[in-house]
Structures are given as C-alpha cells and as structure tokens.
Amino acid sequence: MDSGKFQELVLKQLELLTEGQQRLNLKFDHLEQGQQRLDLKFDHLEQGQQRLDLKFDHLEQAQQRLDLKVDKLEQTQQRLDLKVDKLEQTQQRLDSKVDKLEQAQQRLESKVDRLEQGQQKLDSKIDKLELRVENEVVDKIRALFDGRELQNNRITLQDKRLELIQEKLDRISDDTAYLVSEVASLKRLVK
Q1: Which portions of this protein are annotated as coiled-coil regions (predicted)?
Q2: Are residues 6 and 80 in contact, defined by beta-carbon separation less than 8 angstroms?
Q3: Number of domains, the chain
Q4: Quick one: how many helices (H) and strands (E) in the chain?
C-alpha cells in the first residue's frame, strides 16, 4: 500500500472515529436523560444509584480524555481532507459497531426499568460495556497514531533521500560548469 492510500485510510478512520464518537456522545446524553427520569422513579435505591454515578463519572472522565484525543485527530484531519474517500469501508465497520452499541443500550434501558430486582446484574453489564468501548476506541486511536508515526518516518526518509539527490545534482552541476569552462579554454587554445 503506497503512503497516499495509507494516509487516506488513516484519514477515513479518523473521520469515522470522530463521527462514531459524536454518535456515542449523543447516545450517552440520552442515557443521562434516562437516568434522570429513573432518579425520580427509584429514590429509595440511593445506594445503588451512587455506585452508578461513580461509574458515570469515570465514563465522563474517559470521555474527556477521548475528546482531547479527538481534538488532536481533527487537527490532523484538516491536513488530510483530500484522502478521506478511502476511509468509507472503515466507516461502515464503525457504523455496525455503533449499531451494536445501540442495541446494547436498548437492552440496558430495559434492564434499568427492572433496577429494583437486578441492581447488581446491571452494575456488571455497565462495567463490561465501559471496558469494551474504552478498549475498542483506545486501541483504534493507538493504531491510528502508530500509522501516522510510520507515515512521518517514511516522509522523513524520503526527505533525506531528496537531500542526497540534491547534493549529487549540485556536485554534477559544479562538475559540468567546470568542464564547460575547461572546454571553452581548450577551444581558445585551439584557435
């Protein structure tokens, strides 16, 4: 895969990650609104709610860290906008993963309605969902940064090669100028 295609693939993935993250943010906002409705419904479950609040705080902190990373990715994305077309396949995979997350969210909402009977089961499933989302997104971001670093290394190597070629051309140019002056001298001597 040439560097242009690779950069396009990386850009596409970055765009997909950004869009997926935005959808996740919207879904997370919907979860928070649902949680507020449930707070009115389940006041007598304050202890269980406090445990959920702590987990949501951890998710918000993770979200803030991801937001910072996404901001950095967006800055990089501006330089790579011409190569975004090649990332559509990755977007489709991310869309299917978001659909899976939406399905998981729907299951979670139905389980929250039965919170009085299954508070401990819900805590376990939220932990699993949190780990899954965190692991998938962090691994993909790491892979994108690794790919970007590889591209930067390749570009640096190409720059060094170009410098060497330029130096050789300069030497050839100097040698040619010298030979031209020598030929001119010989022509004057021959005349």
Answers
A1: 56-132
A2: no
A3: 1
A4: 4, 0
Q: What is the pLDDT along the chain (191 residues), one digit of tens a residue?
A: 678 888 888 888 889 888 989 998 899 889 888 878 766 676 655 665 576 678 878 888 988 888 888 888 788 767 767 565 666 777 888 788 888 888 887 877 776 666 566 666 657 777 887 888 778 888 888 888 888 899 999 999 999 999 999 999 999 999 999 999 999 998 888 87
Residue 171 lies in a domain: no
Structure-token pair, residue 161: 């090669």
Structural contact between residues 147 and 7, judged by C-beta atoms closer than 8 angstroms: no
Q: Is the pTM of this model over 0.85?
A: no
- Give the structural domain span for 146: 3-159
Cα–Cα distance between 135 and 99 in angstroms, integer? 17
| Nearest C-alpha neighbor of 28 from the set 60, 72, 65 | 60
CB 21 within 8 A of CB 70: yes
